[in-house]
Write a structure and sequence with these properties.
Trna Endonuclease, Chain: A, domain 1; 5-stranded mixed sheet; globular
């Protein structure tokens, strides 16, 4: 399955979670529920996946943590905020670059309609497609 089809299916599952739970919960609750849906639909999903940082000779094993990584290709960064900021955009772009992942979804569950809280990011330089 290509990464675009995968992202569309993941968005559908995120919509299901948001429909069931609504806004107002902690990010960790949405993360666990979305991971549950992904797993039950047969997807490989890693929760709070460590993303190391390498700087010269130093390797920081747990520099960052991805909220969810789906099928080793799709990064999901979940938020429960009033609105996205440039820091949120920089965060997911950094994850895509450091992990060499092709696609990321920034999903804000603190919205009345989840479709208004999803932003898609593409890593043009990714070789892990």
């Amino acid at each position: 399955m290509d990464v675009n089809t995968l992202s569309n299916r993941v968005i559908g599952l995120a919509l299901e979670v948001h429909t069931q739970l609504g806004p107002g919960l902690l990010e960790s609750a949405y993360c666990e529920c979305l991971a549950y849906e992904l797993y039950n639909h047969g997807y490989k999903v890693e929760v709070q996946k460590p993303l190391p940082i390498v700087y010269k000779e130093i390797k920081l094993e747990h520099g960052y943590r991805l909220d969810l990584l789906v099928e080793d290709r799709l990064v999901l960064e979940l938020k429960t905020v009033e609105c996205f900021t440039d820091v949120h955009f920089a965060q997911i772009l950094t994850y895509l670059r450091l992990g060499n992942y092709p696609l990321g979804l920034l999903i804000n569950f603190h919205t009345k309609s989840l479709k208004d809280g999803i932003k898609r990011f593409i890593n043009q330089k990714a070789t892990n497609i």
